[in-house]
């Protein structure tokens, strides 16, 4: 497929028939991302990037309220520094991009491009944190990271460079540190639900799937129409693992020396892909109004150039300026051409003004999500727009939520579970806390893995692990997953 | 020097005696930046980073008004792509950090960490731009770049990784492209003057000093108290140089194929350093109120714990919440300790409340920049704060402007010029447009170079170049420079 095309060239693949081809076309034809000659990396084009900036600003606002401060640490991590925490380096080193040369000079020590910034940040934390007075220390950065995936890259979902926030906090006690989990998860949940219209399952990762170096990991897992789960924002409680590796100690009030307790947490540009994939349809992108920059496109409808219709359109354009509307007054293309183009690009509401509307002092409102038409008096337009934007936002969330809820299932035996996985369900199953138990699952059903353990657990006593047949330790969702 | 210290430990070096030691101490002790084990890179600590975010937001707001859209391109540039524009690669390749390995795999082609993004962006521009309808194309990104300087790194001024905006615009005609210069330079000038309180000289770089690949470069040059100039934001008109190298063509209205005309422009984190160095003093940082996050610190003064004074302080704290004040109610340190700490960190205004103030329903306001004290009735406090913040902002700009204006000088012969350079002047001199003329200058006075040619030029006819003695082509500022 090419990026050189007419601006309204539609999608030829169907979401329900060939999801992955449909997604690729959507991303390119709606100008959300572009490819370059760097394999596995994408360009974030304006529509996608402005949504990321919106996510950043909204998350940031909420982080500031809980006294998190933004910082910026170097992109590079010397190899020796990265290697200080054993689990961490084991998890990341297969994917690290290494700088070995600068200009014509070979570097004495290889520098990792940060895959995440624990190593470089905690070196400084160990200098900055001295006493209980320095705690809690709550820093965050918005940064680009590189994880050189050798799997097939997918725009937004899996790219070798991506952008995220990384919060890195340090506390005097484990209890205080763990209290942060709910604050952070709630912020991410709010952004996902109220802005991106993405529902999710909140739970704890198994030890096999947790973050490299963490004591435990909480995630929000989402579900896509192709039957696959995808991991969203996460929160890691690190205990004192990194504190011990990077020597981050403080003096308590009674002058004892102790290691700090740490958390890290992140939301990434992956969520853009989840949002595009979840809501969009065979006509193109569908954007939740809360994140759409231009919430309205106004299209004057007139066979000849009718100045009165254009004037009326301009008047409405001004009146609705807070929605950052687009007035499409091009004369070289037909209204139909324009409809296709803006549907492809996902503008939430289209307003049409034709001769009849002009006469009756009305306008036609068309919803992008349902194609529903409403005729509204101009005097009532602003109110109707507000209402319609809310309806679209709610409809997208509710549809996605229904999709997720319909996919949730439960089982306590392997045969039934495999059958349900076949039907693209996310199945809550009893499992033993062992790598073996999860490997067996993946053997039996390629592509399936554990997602997370819901925080509210059904009774587990007496249940057998569906793969090892030994006593189960917890209920955990399993499903096909990215 | 160490980063482990008491929070109010003052500067021991004097700005007027040993500027570079003073600057280093300022940056570390006021917690603006930190060093890591990556040589030449710094950590941007919260005070510095929030100012950068302020610059970003203010610049961004203005760019959006002129229809610039934000994007994000990959960090990596394949070597073959970087090499397409000859002058560009010649200018940058000595400083490029190269990725040669990912995980355990040696890459087939080396990847440059972007020193700037022309190469990677224009590859996409050549796909996206087809017709006059696609122009102007005005994109910008906020990104981190790496230029592996082998000179001595200085925090903010010269670091191997820094953060900047890079605007990359394409137009149908040279005239349209050149019109953008004044828009962009005015935005940068406004941010420098009204926010950072940094005055500058606007002018054109000589061919020797212009951006690698540009037709010409405009800059804003600033002047530091140590007698050195430093280049600030810049605007490059690229003509069709990159368009030809990266094959960016469009069809005109009459169906002819032409190359686009391009500009690039940037403001970087270097300006943080210029601002810190320009305004700060021997007590610590001085911040222009327009960029200070916490504009006020409130210090209750009471020998014992006087609950009434604390209550009054809290009341004022609430009343002044829009200035994001700090209430320093620590009981374990003295008021004097607190004064030193907040002076070191550069809070623009300190408010003291003592027993006498409580009784008289007043507060004491102390300006960080002049140490001037004012006693104000509480009823008048907000008004007085507003006024004082404006006075500080103006005072900082005026002082810096006076410093710059006093440094500006003019000369039309070499001996006099060298004499003035010795006195740390920036000297406007007639020069021939040749590399030789500039090399001779640098030979005669180590550390001096051409800064820029003011847009309004004095008459040049009949003037001789001060170094080659041949007919001069222009008046240009020369000075010691970073």
Write the layout of secondary structure elements.
Two copies of one chain form a homodimer.
Chain A: H1 19-29, E1 33-35, E2 42-44, H2 46-65, E3 69-70, E4 76-78, H3 79-82, H4 86-92, E5 97-102, E6 105-113, H5 118-128, E7 137-146, E8 161-171, H6 174-195, E9 201-204, E10 216-223, E11 229-239, H7 241-246, E12 249-251, E13 257-259, E14 261-266, H8 270-279, E15 296-300, H9 307-319, E16 326-327, H10 335-345, E17 349-353, H11 355-359, E18 362-367, E19 373-377, H12 381-407, E20 408-410, H13 414-422, E21 426-431, H14 435-444, E22 448-450, E23 453-454, E24 474-480
Parallel strand pairs in A: 3-7, 15-16, 15-17, 20-21
Antiparallel strand pairs in A: 1-2, 4-6, 5-6, 7-8, 8-14, 9-10, 9-23, 10-11, 11-14, 12-13, 17-18, 18-19, 21-24, 22-24
